Amino acid sequence: MSRLSPRLAVVIVYTAAMCMNGLDSTIVNPALLTIARDFGEPVSAANTVEIAFLVALAVALPVAGWLGDRYGTKRVFLGSLAVFTAASAACGLAQDLPTLVLARVVQGLAGGLLTPVGMTLLFRAFPPHERMKLSKVLIVPTALMPALGPPLGGFLTEHLSWHWLFFVNVPIGAAAVLLGVLGVREHVEGTEGGFDRRGFLLATPALGLLTYALGFGPSHGWTSPAIAVSALLGLALLVAACAHLLRAATPLLDLKLLGDKVFGSATVLALVTSAGLMGVLFAFPLLYQAALGASALDAGLSVFPEALGLMLASQAVDRLLPKLGPRLLAAPALVLATAVFAALAVPGVAENAWAVRVLMFCVGLVLGTAVLTVQIAGFADIAPPAMGQAMGLFTIVRTLGGALGIAATAAVIGAAGGSGTHDAAPGPYRAAILTTAGLVALGTLFALRLPKDAPAPPPFDDEPTARPEEGAQAAA
To answer: Where is the Major facilitator superfamily (MFS) profile domain (predicted)?
Structure first.
């Protein structure tokens, strides 16, 4: 173990942890009907299992960057991973719905810390000119695992039981924690001033309430009292939080980082691409069922070629980004992604299995290329001391983007008269998919603000002189 490179240990532990977290955001969806039946609960109650995870994840995000800087990225990351793994075991062992929901809340809180702190750990281990090599790593948890979640969840539920949706995390998480303890170095950036309690008390409930409203709004109705109050209160708290964070001397989240042209553009791109991807992964399986009367497992498998396209995208970015630069790679990729998304809504496409497979593969290839390019280029000019704050902001926006994409597509389906049954007309689902195409098209405007050239290597090849020993190298 002592001969394992610390940077390799960071990559392995990060990938394992983020795969667990990314998979858990979508793997439960196909099993909700089975969980409801096993516990004798209505499906609307079982939906709480998924919403509880997403709300808890959003609540933990604002404090992640501060915790990592204050107590050390290794300590916070591995502690969160250990809690996430234990909560996964508790989910699998749950004998009633309240216990399962409570365990999912704990899982979500830990997962909310894992993503930004894990990416901070990874990006501090590799300087900007080396991050292009990380494309094969970054694509797995951020885009591949959410795409694999529905088919894997359907398979495990159908052939084993829904309990295994959570048990699969336990051996992976335990091994990753052990490797991290032995192989990953600590990095404590330190924080100036005290903890921003006002920012925490404003931003945390704001994100929780907005995620709750976005999650339950499509099914419960946007005008229902609980949803309307949550949405309005969440928006009010978010505005108040932004006003405070911009004035505070030591804010919980440094919103001024968004003033950086490249990072700000990359963050907006993360919002729209995440909304488009999660929206189409939500809407297209429903269209597939409406058009063909397919089962939930078949519908989940219909999006599987997207994962294969993502794997190829990681290879493409690694080779093309140094040659073309972020702008010339991301902008055309988003134009192509818009066309592919729109093609999925063309009448007759969903009825053709091979057309579906080819187009979903193209979704993964072109959108994955754009997502990876944005993720690597957006942090090229972020100084190591600000990396934790930047990762926290980026992850919050990307997470809300995914929730917004699902809520928007669900709202369009409902407004267009979609019933969600096998004999439903496919028109509402096609309208929802066109909405996701519009979101991706919007991202093209911000892609044009990305830098033309890829990050340049440091002037010296001697790594210790290129990076401070106690800074990024210590994080390795």
So the answer is: 10-455
DSSP per residue, 55-67 = HHHHHHHHHHHHH
Between CA 107 and CA 31 the distance in angstroms is 18
The C-alpha angle with vertex 278 and arms to 272 and 280, in degrees rounded to 5, equals 100
| Two tokens, residue 334 | 């988003």
Contact 260, 274 (CB under 8 A): no
Structure tokens belonging to residue 40 = 């004798």
Cα–Cα dist 261/439, whole Å: 20
Count of all residues that appear for the chain in the document: 476
Whose CA is closest to 127, among 374, 371, 379, 452?
379
pTM exceeds 0.70: yes
pLDDT in tens, 18-59: 888 777 777 777 677 777 778 777 666 666 777 778 788 878
Q: In 3-state terms, what secondary structure has residue 7?
A: helix
> CA-CA distances (angstroms) from residue 183 to 2, 134, 296, 425?
7, 19, 41, 55
